[in-house]
Amino acid sequence: MMNFEQSERSLAWMERVRAFMDAHIIPAIPTYHAQAAAIDRWTEIPPVFEELKARAKAEGLWNFFMPPSDHDDEYFTSPGLTNLEYAPIAELMGRVSFASEVFNCMAPDTGNFEVLHRYGTPAQKERFMLPLRDGVTRSAFLMTEPAVASSDARNIQTAIRRDGDHYVINGRKWWSSGAGHPKCDFFVLMGKTDPDAAAYHQQSMILVPRDMPGVTLVRHLPVFGYDHAPHGHFEVLLEDVRVPAENMLLGEGRGFEIAQGRLGPGRIHHTMRNIATMEVALEKMCRRLLTRRTFGKTIAEHSVWEERIARARCEIEMARLLCLKAAHMMDTVGNKAARAEIAMIKIAAPKMAQQIVDDAIQAHGGAGVTDDFGLAELWANTRIVRLTDGPDEVHERQLARMELDKYRAELAA
Amino acid sequence: MMNFEQSERSLAWMERVRAFMDAHIIPAIPTYHAQAAAIDRWTEIPPVFEELKARAKAEGLWNFFMPPSDHDDEYFTSPGLTNLEYAPIAELMGRVSFASEVFNCMAPDTGNFEVLHRYGTPAQKERFMLPLRDGVTRSAFLMTEPAVASSDARNIQTAIRRDGDHYVINGRKWWSSGAGHPKCDFFVLMGKTDPDAAAYHQQSMILVPRDMPGVTLVRHLPVFGYDHAPHGHFEVLLEDVRVPAENMLLGEGRGFEIAQGRLGPGRIHHTMRNIATMEVALEKMCRRLLTRRTFGKTIAEHSVWEERIARARCEIEMARLLCLKAAHMMDTVGNKAARAEIAMIKIAAPKMAQQIVDDAIQAHGGAGVTDDFGLAELWANTRIVRLTDGPDEVHERQLARMELDKYRAELAA
Amino acid sequence: MMNFEQSERSLAWMERVRAFMDAHIIPAIPTYHAQAAAIDRWTEIPPVFEELKARAKAEGLWNFFMPPSDHDDEYFTSPGLTNLEYAPIAELMGRVSFASEVFNCMAPDTGNFEVLHRYGTPAQKERFMLPLRDGVTRSAFLMTEPAVASSDARNIQTAIRRDGDHYVINGRKWWSSGAGHPKCDFFVLMGKTDPDAAAYHQQSMILVPRDMPGVTLVRHLPVFGYDHAPHGHFEVLLEDVRVPAENMLLGEGRGFEIAQGRLGPGRIHHTMRNIATMEVALEKMCRRLLTRRTFGKTIAEHSVWEERIARARCEIEMARLLCLKAAHMMDTVGNKAARAEIAMIKIAAPKMAQQIVDDAIQAHGGAGVTDDFGLAELWANTRIVRLTDGPDEVHERQLARMELDKYRAELAA
Amino acid sequence: MMNFEQSERSLAWMERVRAFMDAHIIPAIPTYHAQAAAIDRWTEIPPVFEELKARAKAEGLWNFFMPPSDHDDEYFTSPGLTNLEYAPIAELMGRVSFASEVFNCMAPDTGNFEVLHRYGTPAQKERFMLPLRDGVTRSAFLMTEPAVASSDARNIQTAIRRDGDHYVINGRKWWSSGAGHPKCDFFVLMGKTDPDAAAYHQQSMILVPRDMPGVTLVRHLPVFGYDHAPHGHFEVLLEDVRVPAENMLLGEGRGFEIAQGRLGPGRIHHTMRNIATMEVALEKMCRRLLTRRTFGKTIAEHSVWEERIARARCEIEMARLLCLKAAHMMDTVGNKAARAEIAMIKIAAPKMAQQIVDDAIQAHGGAGVTDDFGLAELWANTRIVRLTDGPDEVHERQLARMELDKYRAELAA
């Protein structure tokens, strides 16, 4: 029966995460930034970050992003939080830029981990998944390519050619997030094994150790002037990269199938972080407006801001509910049946977040575009969400077609 | 624990209402309009409507809008549907303009009925509530005034002056919806008993039989060219209208207190009808786009429409969830604690509905602004929702202030 | 050299029109409405209107919409106002719904008159144009059809078949504005003479006297509940309507060619009336906001309205300048070279007007949707402009393609 | 008489600037960026830039931003381009980020130069204006302060206290653009000389050599991750900075008076650069859409992009016309009478530009947020325009009040 309160299990985990963040992460933010400013952020990690991570692991606040799974085995047992139960925790972590990683719950490792857990062979799990599970390594996901509109994934051109007991990979990827992280160990790469197969069976996914000969990190890609080190986004060149045939995931031609399953939970996590962003921005906006005065009153008393605050609050509440419903459907009827809802949150939340952060910037005047309140970087991070995992237009197309399909048959009759 | 499925009870009522609508109401729509075209709509009711109403009453599909109540007595026993359980039924009924009234679940009678059920004396209930309960009479709610900005309800000027064992009422009201209905029996009127009292204790609510000497229906108010007969919206002049002192509701100066309680469920009903409107408009839009062709393809294949359909679907889902959450909060923590959520749906849903109906009109070309598809009238009905029960700006102000209040104390410290 | 002041000639005409409106039209508005309320508006004309028209004609304020023309002949000599000079006068007249017609400068007669002036044979001019010139008759333009998406004009299906020295017309038109006017004398009709010709040479235009056998006014089409009598918009059925072959305009297959030329000036006139609408709405909004108080101040002091007023003023100024520039280009380089600018004003102004009138309605509260301030009817009139002469989407498509064409050749190279 | 063609003089200068840009500046862009990448951008200037500047000066393409002036003297003779004539040249230069400075036509030096030209004493001109005129030095304008909402300029707190034949300045400024440029020679600083004077007579402007003891450049302020070196935006601390009394501009208490005059032409320049930004973004958007394919066609053929391109083209044309009209009014009736139009372009153009650049980013997918197409930096530069010289809200307030003032007196009567 309809209910809007979280489960006991979720509330208990939320409480633990919140307590950890209040006690350890939030107080460490200044230290984190000070240490980051003093090191080469592309090759070193701020020591306080490693301490936080070790502490979270020791307290068992670790890898809890994994939904209940029938793929549990000796390598990993899911902690059992459903997508619906995990979602509010993702929001909680989303309030601090580096918090997810403290708990080993960060993209793209979560998606790659789930792929390995679900589809990996024992050998693949041992080699790639275990170090990821333990937070010893990180990984990247190589899909988008600079030469084509990757929003139509069938456009992807990177070639994966069988050669004896190896595959030889040639291509150029970009927006390979995390590929340059000092701990990055391997890539999950999507590429074309058979250009002559049916449209959705040409692509495969394969595991590529980062340090293979032929792999070149061409450059990192800035996002509105921010570098996002040490994670970053990279352009990666693959020239005659030879990986063992056993690195193929699931089988040739099954790349789309894996991609489908991989994206659902990630969309929930992304959206809940979007929602955290909106909450952070709205809070900062309110605080600023209450403490600055123009024309004889606080700016908060100018009704043009009432309209913006009210809209922000409405949108946050609506987006959160929709995301939770999508998570609930994934848990109860499966990712495929939840396809429309997953598309909806991908469409709706980033646009809302972009507007709310923009309003928060406006409320801060010049301070809004500097790094003083974190809003400019938040804006940049928010803006890319309308492009990652497919631009708005692709999801709108998909959702509209599902809507139209409700009437097509009847009208054709 | 969080759940997005309706209760068994709600599903059962939904099923009954849906079956009744499919079997009786929807097939009767052409007859209803044909009969309406042939009568004086201000004084007569289409016979088919009375038949539908009698049938619904006979089947017990009657007055089920009332939430569980500790005010039950010999005059009325609540059927026990919570606000959350009733909400999807309100949406169902909202798909046909006259359906709510078939089930005796139409505004403003629902609100007036609830006021009487909660605050009425036995005598008031016998005289006013029982015929309303039985669908024999209808009623109106007289609050807004043409001479002042009623969005600030303290502006209301109509005088209610005590004179012996009567009250004498003088003032001019408008947007008195239903005041001209052939069955309208009485008004719940808000007016000022004590201009010298504290701001929120000047106003009272009193019961005024429509046929009292001194009551004049000045004119009906069109809404974008529509008259909304037989219900309609009226300008009502009250000149030295003398009503017995026992018609006062709850006590002098308690008008705001009653208004507060009265509005909550009504907002849920209104919003769920908005959502029905959006669904109807989106369905019509999709059907039209699939059946018209320009430039070598159906209009549905032009991606500018994909964006609009996708946005519509996202907004409908989000608005519905927020409304259901507001209803759930009213049921569980009370109307006062749900104040923010109630404001949110009042702000968010009508704007969305306005846009979606406007898009549907655009999709129909010239046909959209005629009466052929009902979209123009739907638009008019939708547009007024941004003004009824207070314009957007008043609710945005209220919601923004609640948001700002979260930080005020801390910042003042 | 760039200059933003109107010519002496335009200023002099503006002054005459303004003086006439101030002296005669504006004072007559109440009489006009009172008389209209007392007659059958579909068959009778308010007497005051005929008086105003006679007076305007006597004063020589008549037919001045016609730009300088090399088609001048014994039937008509253009008064010589360029499109640029006429535009501000169109705005002036646009402030009162019936003013254009007082000066014999109303659509669709202006467009039909220009077609006849430019392409008509002497016989066609004598029969159709002269009474129009003298304000004795009115006319309609029959293009749009209910059965197809007329936004792609190639879809038009009405058949014009040669039969000896006649043409036989069969089809169904709608949105035939003015077809039901008591003085309507003839239609300019677009239809298909040769379904096998190249796409843009299938259609022709032909003159059809209204009272021909086989012409049926099926019904009038309401616009958001308004009937727009006596002008109105009609659905017209043509069944085996036989007109003499000499009624063909310009020649078979030249319908698109005529339509192209016909639309330019009309778009300027429509847009300038849109601008008048925006000015009227903004003025009413400001006046209302200054005279109502909420929460201790006039509503005008709530900054949410400052934003709307400011946006309205910016948009009005920008739309007017763009329209004047389009008019200037039509005058100097021709309608074809001004194609982009004409599309731009058709796209931009109606959307702006819709928003500004909507804001004005919101500013008036419930009064905004009634007939008390004329805003609801203004809204309805504004909304249809986004559909008449092709919906927004068609003009956006056309304009975007012109923009893209700037780069196509180079990129293809 | 109204005309939309530029004057011969303007066209001739446009042609010279365009030719210079085509021949020298545009080919030098890669060299400029390569050199910039190899130096300390805060202390060194790319050599190619100095070469371009020397060449432009030698060709007499220098300081032509100054409108005709009765302040001409032995120090400077205005080249005589009106604001209207200069505007399209500002747009031309605005297409390349560093082009204005090549021609010595860059903010804030243009404004400071004009202040000195108009109000400077001979001594002030010799010391400060001549090197600026010759491109030997640069300058900054110190107004905004971090501690107050500077959008209400009366809030400005920096103290300018008379002490014998000196003024002593104490305060903290920020957004002091150009203060850190290696050639920055002096500041025009606004501060409070008399806190007890009437509200608009408390502030004064004074000339402060940058290298004065007590002046500290605290830090540079990033804009969405970009540093804007070597120009940059700075936080500047002034501690007991003693400047000679003769550095006062115009006289104590006349700061607002100078500010008023200073801002007009700058707004034209800024807006024309906004328009250049929109044109650049639209061109890049079109090119990208034409060269990428999804779902079987170029993205340009997806109609969702037609709508965006069309809107962009409409807005660019409208904004440009409004800006030219504002410039024309400044030239013909003066900055004060053009106050409304100047506010309008400040309100309208930056919002449009923000949307168009955002759309262009979306059209480029991931490439849009990197530095590959310059769009991300363009977005950042565009976003701050909604905050510089007062946020949108302040100008909307001012414009709305002018609009409301049209009716106030009449309604009060």
Automatic annotation (TrEMBL), chains A, B, C, D:
A single Gene Ontology CC term: cytoplasm
GO molecular function, a single term: acyl-CoA dehydrogenase activity
PANTHER family attached to this UniProt entry: ACYL-COA DEHYDROGENASE FAMILY MEMBER 11, MEDIUM-CHAIN SPECIFIC ACYL-COA DEHYDROGENASE, MITOCHONDRIAL-RELATED
Record-annotated Acyl-CoA dehydrogenase/oxidase C-terminal domain positions: 253-401
Biological-process GO terms, alphabetical: fatty acid beta-oxidation using acyl-CoA dehydrogenase
Keywords, in A-Z order: FAD, Flavoprotein, Oxidoreductase
InterPro entries in the cross-refs: Acyl-CoA_dehydrogenase, Acyl-CoA_Oxase/DH_mid-dom, Acyl-CoA_Oxase/DH_mid-dom_sf, AcylCo_DH-like_C, AcylCo_DH/oxidase_C, AcylCoA_DH/ox_N, AcylCoA_DH/ox_N_sf, AcylCoA_DH/oxidase_NM_dom_sf
Domain Acyl-CoA oxidase/dehydrogenase middle, first and last residues per copy: 140-235
Assembly: Homodimer.
Record's protein name: Acyl-CoA dehydrogenase
SUPFAM superfamilies, per the entry: Acyl-CoA dehydrogenase C-terminal domain-like (SSF47203), Acyl-CoA dehydrogenase NM domain-like (SSF56645)
Residue intervals of the Acyl-CoA dehydrogenase/oxidase N-terminal domain: 10-134
Family classification: Belongs to the acyl-CoA dehydrogenase family.
